[in-house]
């Protein structure tokens, strides 16, 4: 710690004194007191100076103070997964990283649990382009606030918060986040559940409640019905009063989808799902298809829709669907949309409403979040391999 004399201007008692960054006050001229240090979280130290003598009034004084300069606080370090080159699960590297301090409008969060999502695979492989290389993947987590940026109100150290979406980087022990992107987690919700349901649950929310608003009596088709999003779509779709048809690859997954409220389950690797949907709906087709599988199912999904039905293509786990001519949707006056959660949670109000509805549905028992797989964060490569190889069901969570 080095010492230097502060070049103080004339100040008067009761004036706030701002010292340079990483400095603090160690002594003052006589007749003056440091009454309080203001704003302890503010990086520039700020003191209120008061007079020790009642006779001094508001007279101005030239004061000399000695301040000790402290070296900048050691850079916060932690461990995170980083991707230096695009590729298979093996490109996920467990490394030391600089976490840093939150700036204005930001908070630092120590993650308790991190949700794994198929979008993390797209970024790792380069299907979606990350803004930089290297990058830390991950778009969903729940953790405790460990620092708040200067002047920030509304968030405190110790708060339990969760987030989903941008900025990417949740595969980290600790991370810096914009404060307006996190939501408080109700006490009744376990952090692991919160981490596993923020992105997937809010996806189910916007798909069923806003993108195509499901009404009682409608029939919906959900592909990959035992997956993270699929499991929630089945439960929530059923609760909304829809007849739910799910597709899955194995008998074990079929049993889970049934438990989750799918009225009919089709093994789409063995059965022709278009023919089966036709049979189940007596040739009428479904009102909406929620298709996250993409390439392998897209064309068949269109064939499953009734007149004026809605095709919601919201993912491509099997690959990007081929381009289609307008005539493909003209044949039945179909609606086609390719929605993204970020475009449905643009404002803070939208984010809070979506998360609030998900948490409320968990509390009331409408949603039973299946955290079927947990891995240490350092073993993210194994978790990615399992997700891509279709070995997982429900939500997958990484624990730092
Ligand atoms: N648009 C958005 O805003 C948004 C938001 C969240 C998620 N999503 C999308 O929703 C989908 C589900 O995400 P999730 O994280 O919950 O993953 P998930 O559904 O748990 O896992 C993907 C599932 O897709 C099925 N699948 C079919 N063909 C596949 C193939 N060739 N390779 C791998 N899987 C295949 C598998 O189920 P079966 O074995 O039963 O076939 C697999 O378990 C993803 O496509 C994701 O991109 C989109």
UniProtKB/TrEMBL annotation:
Which residues are in the Enoyl reductase (ER) domain? 87-398
* UniProt GO molecular function: mRNA 3'-UTR AU-rich region binding; NADPH binding; quinone reductase (NADPH) activity
What cellular component GO annotations does this protein have?
cytosol
Alphabetically ordered keywords of this record: NADP, Oxidoreductase
List, alphabetically, the InterPro entries matched: ADH-like_C, ADH-like_N, ER, GroES-like_sf, NAD(P)-bd_dom_sf, QOR-like
Q: Which Pfam families match?
A: ADH_N, ADH_zinc_N
Official protein name in the record: Probable quinone oxidoreductase
| Organism the protein comes from | Cannabis sativa (Hemp)
